[in-house]
Amino acid sequence: MVSSILAAGLIQAFLELTLYGVYFVVFSTVVYLFRRRTRITQSPMIFVVLAVALQFCTITAHWINTMHGTYLPFVELGGGVEAEKFYHTLGTGTLKIHVILSELTNSITDCLVIHRLYVVWDYRLTVVAVPLLFLAAQIASGIGVIHGFFVQSLENYRAASIGWVTTNLISALVISVYCTGMITWKIVSVNGTRLQISSHSIGRRHLRVAFIIVIESAALQTTMNLALLVAFHCTTTKVPNFILKGIQAVVLGLSTVLVLARGLGWTQSIPAAGTNPTTVSFTLDDVRTLDTEAPADPYVRK
């Protein structure tokens, strides 16, 4: 009978492999669209391209490390007791690389969502002041989490690192919830659409606008961070946290590339004085085209 930790290792590897396949397809689509439709000349665009490229590198390295980390216990060690020891040892190079790449991906994703909020709200520093403070806390606590993996054993890691892990997860959750709320508010106000969430009032249009909000905001990121926080504090076994932490990087990557593939992500801005009118079009055909005076869109050229 396969132990729970070995089963969790297989489940996590399968889920990450599947999700990485989806992520790679969407990422490739985004790269193709960027090459055809966008000129990378403005500083906001350069930032996004570099950040997404770095995120792709960390997610790909995380996936390769996961595949290597699955091969070692099940093929080289032959499963059984030796494989369980492998998963229970925090000091292995595979697990160290695993957590470093996860924290890097988490920080990059939060930088991107804060940047998206910054552009959506017409470059208002006051809007992003709160998430920037929590980003600093997240990076600092992430360093603490990584340090714990290098100096603690599995038996005392939870007790010794609970403060770092909790701070890291709460900081990431606050960033994603705040950005989700602010971006959702902007999308709804720009569309002039009020979502009526009831069994009698949700129509086809409302469902599509809700779909836009889920992708455009940090909703996927929020869900993942909340699930990790609940798994870390409310479960007695390590299995749920192990699986969720394993797929966190690729889920965050999907959240990012779905925004870019939507062709909407950083295109909504408040009208600026003295600028020429431009038309911003949502890609879903029954969300209306907006004619508004806004800065030239550096991301998607319609």
TrEMBL record:
Origin, by domain of life? Eukaryota
Any idea which UniProt keywords this protein has?
Membrane, Transmembrane, Transmembrane helix
The residues that cross the membrane are 6-34, 46-64, 125-150, 162-188, 209-230, 242-261
Keyword Transmembrane helix included in the entry's annotation: yes
Question: Could you tell me what this protein is called?
Answer: Uncharacterized protein
The record lists the organism as Mycena sanguinolenta
